[in-house]
Amino acid sequence: MNKQQDNKAVIVVSFSGHDPSGGAGIQADIEAINANHAHACTIITALTVQDSRDVKKLIPMELTLFQNTAETLLEDVSAGAFKTGLLADAGIAYRVVQIAKQFPDVPLVIDPVLASGSGSTLSNDALIRIFQTELLPIATIATPNLPEAQILSGAQHPDDCAEKILAMGCQHILLTGTHADTEQVVNTLYTKDEKIEFKVERLTGEYHGSGCTLASSLAANLANNQDIKTAVRNALNYTWQTLKHAQAIGKGQLHPNRQYSYD
Asked: What is the mean pLDDT of the chain?
C-alpha cells in the first residue's frame, strides 16, 4: 500500500453557492467540514452578489461546466458524504440527483436553501418540485427550518411537515426550531419510528450561515461514521458554539465563528 492510500482523507463533497462575504455557502461549508475532521471538496452551483445583509443577485453555474466539474472530481476522490446547499435552479438540482444516484451508499445531507436569511427568494416552483420528487426521496437527512419545511410539505404544523417529507422517502428530518416562539430553541430529529428533541439556549441576534454550518458539520460527522443521533447531536452542539462566538463581519447579520477553538 502506498503512502497516499495510508493517509486517505475523509471527504465531504459540497454542492453550494459562493457567498463573497464568507458567511454562508461554499466558504462556510469548507470551514465547518474542516472543523469536524473531514476534508471539503466543493462544486459551486452559483455565484451570488451579496453582503452580510442580503442576496442581491443569483447567477446559476452553466450546466455543462457544473457537470464536468462534478464528473472530474468524483472520478478522482471517494466521497464519504454529500452535502447540498443553494442549488440555484432546477437544472442544477436535477444534475445533483443524477450524481448522487451513482453513489447510493454515500450519505446525502440536504440543506434545502429556498430563501436567504433576510427572506429573499432563492427558489422557484420548478426547483421545489425537484426537491419533492427527486432529491428528498434519496436523502439520508434533510435539515429544513420551519418555513422551508412548510413550503416543501404543504403542511403547517412541524410534526405534519416532517411526516409528509418522510413520506417522500427522506430517511430522517432534522427540523430546526429557531423560527418557533419558544424560550429555548427546540431542534427535532424525526425518523419513521421516533421523534427526538434537542434543546439549546436561544441566542440573541441574527446570523448569516447557520444552516450551512449545521448541515456541513452533520455531513462531516456522517462521513466519519457517526450514527445519525450522534452526528446530529454533535453538529447541533458545534453550530451553537459557532453562533455563541459569532462575529460582526459587515453591517448586517453576524457570521458564525467556525474557526473558534471548542476543545
From this structure: 93
195-201/141-142 β-pairing: unpaired
Q: How many CB atoms lie within 10 A of CB 169?
A: 13
E strand map for the chain? 11-18, 39-50, 55-60, 81-84, 108-110, 141-142, 172-175, 184-190, 195-201
To the question of pTM greater than 0.85 for the whole model, the response is yes
How many other CB atoms are there within 10 angstroms of residue 11's CB atom? 20
Which pLDDT belongs to residue 7? 86
Locate 247 and state its grid cell. 462575529
- CB-CB contact of 46 with 230 (8 Å): no
**DSSP H helical segments within 78-199, as ranges?**
90-101, 125-130, 146-153, 158-167
Cα–Cα nearest to 9, from 35, 42, 40 = 40
Distance (Å, whole) CA 173 – CA 191: 7
What distance in Å separates the CA atoms of residue 218 and residue 208, rounded to the nearest whole number? 18
Cα–Cα distance between 107 and 139 in angstroms, integer? 7
Non-local CB neighbours of 110 within 8 Å, separated by 6+ positions = 83, 84, 131, 135, 136, 139, 141, 142, 143, 170, 215
Domains of the chain and any CATH numbers: 10-244 (3.40.1190.20)
**pLDDT for 128-168, tens place per residue?**
999 999 999 999 999 999 999 999 999 999 999 999 999 99
Task: Render the burial of 208-226: b for 16+ CB within 10 Å, e for the rest.
Answer: bbbbbbbbbbbbbbbbbeb
